[in-house]
Design goal:
Elements (H helix, E strand, L loop, with lengths): L13 E6 L10 H12 L7 E6 L1 H4 L3 H4 L16
Parallel strand pairs: 1-2
Length: about 80
C-alpha cells in the first residue's frame, strides 16, 4: 500500500453576504434576483467567495427555490414536459 499524497490544496474562500431587502413584486422570481445581483457584482464578482444570501426578499422565497441545486446553481430544474 502506498502512502497518500496530497496533490493540491484549496485555500479557504472569503465570505460575501448579499442582502436583498424589501418585497418582490408579483412575477419576480429567484432567477430575476440572481440576475440583478450578477448585474451589480459582475460574472466574476463572487470568484473565490462563499456567498450567503440574506434579507427580507430572500426570506420571502420558498424553500424550494432557495435550496441549492447542482444542476443549475440554485434554480430548480424545469418540470419535464413532452
Amino acid at each position: 500500500m502506498s502512502p497518500c499524497s496530497l496533490v493540491s490544496v484549496q485555500s479557504k474562500g472569503k465570505n460575501m453576504r448579499v442582502t436583498v431587502t424589501g418585497s418582490l413584486q408579483p412575477g419576480v422570481t429567484s432567477k430575476d434576483v440572481i440576475l440583478a445581483i450578477i448585474g451589480t457584482i459582475g460574472t466574476a464578482g463572487g470568484n473565490g467567495h462563499v456567498i450567503e444570501f440574506a434579507g427580507s426578499a430572500i426570506a420571502s422565497l420558498s424553500m424550494e427555490v432557495r435550496r441549492p441545486s447542482p444542476l443549475r446553481g440554485g434554480d430548480s430544474p424545469p418540470p419535464y414536459t413532452h
